[in-house]
Amino acid sequence: MPLLPPLPLPAAPPAKRVVDLLGALLLLTLLALPLGAVAALLYAATPRAGAFVRETRAGLGGRTFRTWRFRTDGRRLGAALDRWALDGLPQLLNVVRGEMSLVGPRPLAHAEHPERLLVRPGMTGLWQVSARSDLPWEEMDLLDRHYVENHWLGMDLAILAQTPRAVVRTAGPRPPASPPPAPATDPRTEPAPQRVA
Fold this sequence. Notes:
With 197 residues, the protein is mostly helical.
């Protein structure tokens, strides 16, 4: 589907861009060694495919850009990255470049709703802190559009604060779906039935 023509760029709130830039640079500094180690392990596991997946996305004003994420197909490390929502950490580079924000609607390959193009796509957002992928697509889209229409810096900070807990809640240890079966009793150790008078 062809992209819509670029829309006029709105005046971006300077404070949001400052938070994006400082936050992304801080995270990249703290995570440089772990991210490098993950990339090396993924490359060693799949040297032909590489450690990263590059995708074209529609950004602010309809401008397209390339985004990166760790490859998650076929390996235990990749599955862990996907489960804990860590495969998108390379997108911090997109935030530094000004193509993405820390908080915003999901980056999509096409723009079905032009209003999405009025803000930068984000690494996290309302639907992620609500239930992440447990929500139906329609509800995720509604939450993204609600963010576009109502976002402000306080909302961004609240979403950032809730994101780690949301990831742990949805990816961490889960209670068993049903209680474990009762252990089988050994008839030799089972007490004899009592007589009823």
